[in-house]
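Design job #97: recover the sequence.
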């Protein structure tokens, strides 16, 4: 930009234009000052945790119980299948993939358990209402 301003100053004979350009050049920040005013970009330091196969949960028992007792069976069946995959990944020392899949299975099981609890609660409420309605009708 400074060379462009110098070229305009040298090429023009118009005194008004020269004064404007000189004023722009006078109040222009130098490149080192402009660089120092920029916000510093800090790079995040990655936190690397060592993966231990014993710390990766496979959720097999939870998936099995959820498959038996929950009416929302799509999630627990997928979780049951993926829990076996987690065990195989741990055996093959693919710990990063096993850890990612473990988190996914945990989330699926939480959602499935909540839906199953809501369905079981609804069934209990309906059975209770039918029972009390039968008592009052007689």
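Job complete. Output follows.
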């Amino acid at each position: 930009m400074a060379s462009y301003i110098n070229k305009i100053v040298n090429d023009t004979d118009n005194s008004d234009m020269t004064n404007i350009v000189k004023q722009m050049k006078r109040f222009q920040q130098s490149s080192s000052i402009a660089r120092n005013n920029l916000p510093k970009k800090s790079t995040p330091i990655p936190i690397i945790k060592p993966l231990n196969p014993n710390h990766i949960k496979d959720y097999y028992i939870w998936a099995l119980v959820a498959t038996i007792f929950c009416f929302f069976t799509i999630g627990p069946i997928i979780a049951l299948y993926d829990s076996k995959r987690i065990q195989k990944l741990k055996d093959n020392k693919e710990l990063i993939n096993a850890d990612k899949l473990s988190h996914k299975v945990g989330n699926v099981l939480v959602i499935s358990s909540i839906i199953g609890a809501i369905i079981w609660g609804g069934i209990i409420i309906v059975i209770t209402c039918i029972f009390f309605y039968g008592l009052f009708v007689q």
